[in-house]
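Regression test attached.
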Amino acid sequence: MNRLYKIYSLILVSVFCLNAHAKLNVMTTTTNLKSVVESIGGDKVHVESFCKGTQDPHYIEAKPSYTLKAAKADLLVSIGLDLEIGWLPLIIRGARNPKLRAGNVGSFVTGEYIDTLEKPKAGISRAEGDVHPEGNPHFMLDPQNALVVAEKLKEKLKIMDPENSDQYESNFKKFEDQLKAKLVNWEKRVKAGKKVITYHKTLTYFYHRFGIKNVSLLEPKPGVPPSASHILDVMKNAKDEGVKLVLVENYFDPTVANRVARDVDGLKVDIVPVSVGGEPNITNLFDLYERLVSSVEER
Amino acid sequence: MKVIYILSILLFSVQSFAQAPKTKSNAFNPDIGINMLFLDQHSKRDKSGDGMKLQEAELQFSSDVDAYFTAKALFSVAEENGSYGIEPEETYVETISVPYVTLRLGKSKMPLGKHNQLHSHAFPFINAPLINTTILGEEGLNETGIGVSTLSPLPWFSEITLDYTQGDNADLFNSGKKSDKAVIGRFKNLWDLSDSTTLELGFSGAKGKNSDHLDTNLYGADLTLKWRPIDGGKYHSFEWGNEFLEKDRKGAANGKLSGLVSFLKYQMAQRWYAQYRYDYLGLNKSKSINASKRHTALVAFVPSEFSSVRLQYETINDGQVEDESRVSLQLNISIGAHPAHAY
């Protein structure tokens, strides 16, 4: 048993090696966050996302291979607002990389910098479905929020890697200019007041930015699949309000949306990506916003 | 003395990575969660456990202690021999500021195979496999001591866990001499075969002295295949789990016993699961103990992550004149903070 203790202490004391690395190793929870890190970090960072573009980030499983990636990460960029609470804590615990714990140097929780929408009133409960106590976490779908995150990320990268500060600044400037220019174009193309129906509340921030009115949700409550009576209500709403478009986020089953569209004249269904990589040609955030804008614009 | 030695190595080696956030006073309250399992059971042969009952309630508390430790306590409330009792199922702390390794101190479920580490509300079926209840006991292998776990340097996910414990398990250990300890270890490997499929292979073992002052050795192996597609993963998935367990308890007449379990869990739709399990106990041909074979079928409706209704049918052939069969209906709910289940 004495030998076992000596082995234990040897392991503990000898593992503290500081490794010099050329690139910052960044892990993000979603592909949208990965896109921002790529834009600001450029070739000075190596970045990967746990969640893929076609997966619902609420519900992915904490696969042990994710733990391996987190073990090697210098920085973990997450949404927060309880979006990843079902799996991220397990990954951080398994990684045994204390830097990544919330509040520590390697943790960047982007939701902390955002003014969230749909903050529930007092007395929140799960009877209302899968609700988030601090507001809707899908804020990356508003290009202005992406800009806020990009700026905070730039500051974070400058602190972690001061040698490349200038590069991060110039990358950010390029991203900012590009985004602002595209935003002007996008705002011209979307008609404010356009009425739509959506499956889940993922697109709230996108609608808010472009003045789109979400008339109904196919989910009676967040996380609850549509019931027959609720579908009838949605159809009635669609007819009354003259809705022409149903958007279904690509990780949901479009069967219900198709059924509603069959019964309502002129109603079209579009299965939309809500994350970079959600469709093969969506390789960055600009592609994603462009895809969403072309879905809602009048042609 | 030795515990102090380990702890001082820990604390002197640790760098603090923490920056304290500003919060309100009750923000330091632990996360609290409660699981409740309600059961209605009907058996053909042994009716002693039949009827409607609270199968178990689990009270979970977890919180960071300080910059060095996080703590978890899980108390189980269940009926035994006609009266309810509350027992500490797991009460332990884990280090959070030590890189590369996790040290766990306290009372916890031992890493012997996969199923032994699960709490009742997380069982894939309403009851545990035969190898677990027969070889490890109704409560499983649960010990007090110190455990260390780390990721091995192999290029795939490979985790080594070693526990040094008091060895209190009544049948397997519990030699009566407090200096006799039990050691339990597990070597867990997991590969991503693709973005949607994973394969886990684990080997476990345990060794300690029993009440006859002789060795008890345990050997286990587990193999699990899981599939959840990247597209439409909300609606379909499956898991195929297998475990083998053998005990070699020297000194007892039937001290050598081994068996296996194999189960399939298929997600048919967003909220529906169909499952089947096969248990076999008695791989060593013992003359005085009959081999047991059990078939279990289960259908589950899972309205949300926090509730499920499960209907299970099992038949047991254990060499008696009449086979046992049982129908069980379980309602499994949780409220409050609910830490994620291990993969």
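Expected vs. actual: identical. Residues 191-296 of chain A form a domain with the Rossmann fold fold (CATH 3.40.50.1980).
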